[in-house]
From TrEMBL:
<keyword id="KW-0472">Membrane</keyword>
<keyword id="KW-0406">Ion transport</keyword>
<dbReference type="GO" id="GO:0045259">
    <property type="term" value="C:proton-transporting ATP synthase complex"/>
</dbReference>
<dbReference type="GO" id="GO:0031966">
    <property type="term" value="C:mitochondrial membrane"/>
</dbReference>
<keyword id="KW-0138">CF(0)</keyword>
<dbReference type="GO" id="GO:0015078">
    <property type="term" value="F:proton transmembrane transporter activity"/>
</dbReference>
<keyword id="KW-0496">Mitochondrion</keyword>
<keyword id="KW-0375">Hydrogen ion transport</keyword>
<dbReference type="InterPro" id="IPR006808">
    <property type="entry name" value="ATP_synth_F0_gsu_mt"/>
</dbReference>
<keyword id="KW-0066">ATP synthesis</keyword>
<dbReference type="GO" id="GO:0015986">
    <property type="term" value="P:proton motive force-driven ATP synthesis"/>
</dbReference>
<dbReference type="Pfam" id="PF04718">
    <property type="entry name" value="ATP-synt_G"/>
</dbReference>
<protein>
    <submittedName>
        <fullName>Uncharacterized protein</fullName>
    </submittedName>
</protein>
<comment type="similarity">
    <text>Belongs to the ATPase g subunit family.</text>
</comment>
<keyword id="KW-0813">Transport</keyword>
Amino acid sequence: MASKLVQLQNKAAVASQFVTKHGCAYYKQLLEQNKQYIQEPATVEKCSELSKRLFYTRLASIPGRYESFWKEVDLVKQKLKNRQDLKVEEVGVGVLFALECYAWSCVGEIVGRGFTLTGYYV
């Protein structure tokens, strides 16, 4: 156990040295590549304005997303009406989607209980 701790400390030291040597250069390169997104001057007022723009832009996009959602629901209804015309691939994707939703529900329950595996999921 102690040898694994020493190995972990050595790896952490190597990673720290790498970040120390190359971190500043990476930071500068990243800023240079994305300088068109940087707002000058970076004031509190400008940041507040940009966050409000983002919020209200997202808010304005809700009707379009709402419409797209109902188009998708109508498409699923049409597919269910014509079940005999479904391909195996479409059924497989639907089943995998349902399993994924169920799995996320189970994970959410486990997380909500504080990562304990008790109850009806075990």
